């Protein structure tokens, strides 16, 4: 069914009490050491704690050390290496805090200097070890042009803070909660403040580095402050006029999910259509979401083939809710999912992980990364895994091999090239329809109910897939303000299938189903080629700042498939007899399809004031579809075009609070023609959204509240004048409220949660009663996962977590003839992490709730959920 566009008025008004969201007072830190650099000079000052005045952004002063021409050798006590595992940038009333989160608690040495308008600090006994490589952030606050944190060599970390006009004033201090903190003030007056003769350091005084003690916090951070999916630029989430939620690597490690839906349910994404053992298909804001991306490039096979992706090389998942055609072209209106994969690290890293769990799950995996050259300009990463498993469904077994090598080449100071590829071979028994019949499960039946493990196909069914992806990404910086990125992906998928498709129960006995066997006459082959090139530039028009994104993308996707349909013997679902002879051939299909698209997009992120930001963008697409029936020797080609706008505004009345409003649109091509041979128009999704975002607990916890009105138009429905044809007069509307929370409540105590209310209704249709709920969409969805890790004492390294997942009831068919009941699941985890060893025990569906998690719109087919399972994970890191 397909849909028509409607422009509803925004019907909600957000009001908040700002004072309750203000930053809590900063607690005083123990005595610390700190340095201030002004125009190349470093001043020394010794104060006692009771002489100091604490600011909101940092701890107390202790001492400042003059910089000389040379530094002495590091003492033996400080030659241990401190690993920097995260970099944070927080806004303060003076400017920003740049925080280097450390993995171990050691004495740290810092060698500061200024060059031009840049503050530079070298840390000889530290290494940056980010999953994403080096850290870089442009224009975090007015007066600061660029922040970079990178490994200068194998044993030295360099921090560079570049001012827009002058070198910033930097206060350096250690913290017992964060690690190493740089308090940055982008003040031109401070940078140019006169220096009296008494303040100038003596050149005869012996030189020595600044020593600080850093205390490592638990490496369990859930909050991710930035994302690229919504804008294709590095933008703080608080500055994006959209609801965006990031599920980071730490959540994935804590939960140890078996499939992608296990990750995405943290963001309120609902499973749709197919069993999670077979495919990744989702629903967001009431509409099917086939918009799955990997590193910003669309996974074309998520649209056309049931494919369940490996989790081995996933670093994080970003979910952007609502239409986003302005950046990505043809997309479903509910939202997009971007999978960010692991990148080469600047320092050697080796990890071996083994998972052993219920239903014979056994999955060893390897994650290795290291520089290949002495200067680190060439580095690699390799992720590989092998998995064997059964499941609660009869006859199911799985073998899966995955490998993903990545090479990163830092060609020069401003140029970087990354090559990566993925190969996956999946051999699974059972076809794509490992579902059951509602009339033998949740609906009354005089014969009772069949067990959830009952398979209604044949034991000889299978679905095998081989995937190859080849990618490169070339980035070049012309200067601090302008850069260009070029990405290309070639992907190939081969599938082979034999499945037994089932119909509804015969009314005569309420126990027999008719069946059809579907077999590929030859393996189905898919090819997809995607090219994306865009330029990002920062410039000013007077006092107004702009971040421009200008680009184009091009893709081609083809599919060649042949299918044979054969009559299969009926089956008694209460007393099945498998292996009966097949009947007559019912039909053959041999088709070829091609989809081409070319899109041009322009976006401007405008900073009107420090607390007022505007996002405007537009995109123009040209798309073409070819469909060829090789048996009938017929072919058709259809071309369409569409313009997709987006506009949003963000207002920040106080630093931790962002109010936003946005309008956006999406489109998808609809192939075919009406009875007058007029080609169908693309489906259009139109959304109005308002919301509020806030950062709490000293920017450690983030929350977003969103209200939206989303309408999908140009839906196909039966032509009332000729039932053999369709017209595009259908329309569906989804309205809802969403609340997401991610971050740290107290040191070591993390949480990620989501609640969504979705009122998705049919508003126009010739087949479906107006007012019916959209099929498969629950009104209420909620999830909560929280963990606590001990960071000190006899229990240091121990931790645990508990999670809840609630899915409300839904109507699985468009006529709303029956209901899949709601369910509430409880999960838990216990783990121990110390140095290189991690051991975790995950318990899922602890109370062994019987539930059904998805459905098909036809034949009353539903999919049972997995019962209680336990899983043990052991990981060694070197």
Helical run tally: 5
Low-pLDDT windows of residues: 1-79, 189-208, 215-219
Q: Could you report the average pLDDT, rounded to the nearest whole number? A: 83
Calculate the terminal CA-CA distance, rounded to whole Å: 53 Å
- Number of strand segments: 48
* Alpha carbon gyration radius: 29 Å
Helix content: under 10%
Q: What's the oligomerization state?
A: single chain
Gross morphology: globular
Beta-strand residue percentage: over 45%
Main sheet makeup: 22 strands, antiparallel, barrel
* Helix and strand composition category: mainly beta
Structure in words:
The chain is mostly beta strands and 878 residues long. Helices cover 3% and strands 55% of the residues. It has five helices and 48 strands. The strands form seven sheets. The chain has a 22-stranded antiparallel barrel. β36 (634-651) and β37 form a beta hairpin. The longest helix is centred in the N-terminal third of the chain and has 7 residues, at 249-255. Mean pLDDT is 83; it is low at 1-79, 189-208 and 215-219.
């Amino acid at each position: 069914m397909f849909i028509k566009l409607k422009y509803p008025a925004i019907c909600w008004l957000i009001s908040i009490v700002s004072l309750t969201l203000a930053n809590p007072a900063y607690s005083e830190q123990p005595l610390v050491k700190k340095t201030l650099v002004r125009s190349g000079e470093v001043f020394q000052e010794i104060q006692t704690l009771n002489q100091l005045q604490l600011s909101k952004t940092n701890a107390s002063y202790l001492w400042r050390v003059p910089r000389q021409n040379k530094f002495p050798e590091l003492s033996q006590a400080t030659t241990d290496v401190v690993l920097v595992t995260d970099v944070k940038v927080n806004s303060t009333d003076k400017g920003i805090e740049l925080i280097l989160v450390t993995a171990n608690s050691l004495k740290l040495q810092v060698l500061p200097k200024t060059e031009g308008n840049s503050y530079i600090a070298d840390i000889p006994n530290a290494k940056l070890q980010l999953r994403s490589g080096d850290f870089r952030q442009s224009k975090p606050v007015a007066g600061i042009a660029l922040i970079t944190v990178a490994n200068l060599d194998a044993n030295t970390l360099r921090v560079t803070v570049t001012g827009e006009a002058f070198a910033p004033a930097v206060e350096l201090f250690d913290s017992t909660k964060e690690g190493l903190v740089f308090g940055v003030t982008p003040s031109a007056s401070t940078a140019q403040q006169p220096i009296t003769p008494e303040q100038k350091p003596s050149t005869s005084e012996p030189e020595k580095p600044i020593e600080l003690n850093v205390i490592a916090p638990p490496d369990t951070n859930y909050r991710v402050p930035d994302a690229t999916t919504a804008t294709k630029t590095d933008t703080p989430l608080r500055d994006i006029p959209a609801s965006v939620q990031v599920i980071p690597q730490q959540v994935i490690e804590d939960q140890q999910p078996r499939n992608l839906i296990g990750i995405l349910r943290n963001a309120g994404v609902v499973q749709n259509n197919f069993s999670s053992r077979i495919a990744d298909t989702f629903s967001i804001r009431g509409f099917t979401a086939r918009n799955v991306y990997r590193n910003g490039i669309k996974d074309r096979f998520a649209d056309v083939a049931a494919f369940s992706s490996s989790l081995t090389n996933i670093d994080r998942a970003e979910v952007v809710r609502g239409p986003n055609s302005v950046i990505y072209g043809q997309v479903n209106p509910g939202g997009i999912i971007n999978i960010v994969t692991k990148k080469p690290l600047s320092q050697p890293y080796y990890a071996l992980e083994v998972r052993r769990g219920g239903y014979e799950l056994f999955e060893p995996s390897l994650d290795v990364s290291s520089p290949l050259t002495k200067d680190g300009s060439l580095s690699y990463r390799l992720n590989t895994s092998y998995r064997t498993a059964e499941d609660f469904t009869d006859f199911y077994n799985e073998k899966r091999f995955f490998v993903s090598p990545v090479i990163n080449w830092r060609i020069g100071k401003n140029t970087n090239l990354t090559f990566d590829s993925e190969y996956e071979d999946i051999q699974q028994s059972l076809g794509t329809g490992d579902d059951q019949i509602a009339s033998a499960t949740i609906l009354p039946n005089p014969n009772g109910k069949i067990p959830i493990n009952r398979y209604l196909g044949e034991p000889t069914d299978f679905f095998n897939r081989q995937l190859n992806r080849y990618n490169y990404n070339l980035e070049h910086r012309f200067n601090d303000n302008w850069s260009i990125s070029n990405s290309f992906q070639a992907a190939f998928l081969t599938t082979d299938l034999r499945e037994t498709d089932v119909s509804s129960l015969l009314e005569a006995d309420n126990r027999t189903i008719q069946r059809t066997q579907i077999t590929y006459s030859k393996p189905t082959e898919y090819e997809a080629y995607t090219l994306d090139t865009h330029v990002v530039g920062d410039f000013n028009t007077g006092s107004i700042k702009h971040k421009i994104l200008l680009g184009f993308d091009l893709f081609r996707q083809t599919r060649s498939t042949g299918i044979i349909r054969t009559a299969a013997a009926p089956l008694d679902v209460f007393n099945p007899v498998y292996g009966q002879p097949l009947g007559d051939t019912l039909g053959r299909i041999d088709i070829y399809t091609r989809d081409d698209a070319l899109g041009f997009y322009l976006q401007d992120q405008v900073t009107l004031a420090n607390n007022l930001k505007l996002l405007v963008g537009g995109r123009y697409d040209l798309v073409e579809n070819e469909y060829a029936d090789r048996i009938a020797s017929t072919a058709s080609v259809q071309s369409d075009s569409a313009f997709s706008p987006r506009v949003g505004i963000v207002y920040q009345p106080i630093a931790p609070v962002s109010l936003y409003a946005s309008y956006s649109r999406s489109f998808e091509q609809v192939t075919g023609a009406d009875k007058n041979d007029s080609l169908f128009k693309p489906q259009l999704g139109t959304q109005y959204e308002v919301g509020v975002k806030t950062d709490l607990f000293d920017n450690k916890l983030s929350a977003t509240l969103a209200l939206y009105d989303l309408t999908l138009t140009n839906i196909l429905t039966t032509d009332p004048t000729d039932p053999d044809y369709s017209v595009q007069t259908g329309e569906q509307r989804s309205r809802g409220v969403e609340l997401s929370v991610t971050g740290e409540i107290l040191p070591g105590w993390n949480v990620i949660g989501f609640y969504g209310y979705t009122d998705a209704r049919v508003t126009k249709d010739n087949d479906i009663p107006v007012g019916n709920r959209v099929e498969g969409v629950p009104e209420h969805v909620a999830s909560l996962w929280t963990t606590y890790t001990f960071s000190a004492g006899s229990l240091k390294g121990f931790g645990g977590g508990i999670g809840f997942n609630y899915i409300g009831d839904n109507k699985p068919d468009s006529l709303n003839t029956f209901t899949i009941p709601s369910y509430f699941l409880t999960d838990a985890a216990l783990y121990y992490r110390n140095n290189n060893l991690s051991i975790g025990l995950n318990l899922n569906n602890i109370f062994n709730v019987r539930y059904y998690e998805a459905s098909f719109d036809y034949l009353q087919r539903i999919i049972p959920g997995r019962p209680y399972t336990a899983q043990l994970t052991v990981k060694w890191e070197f």
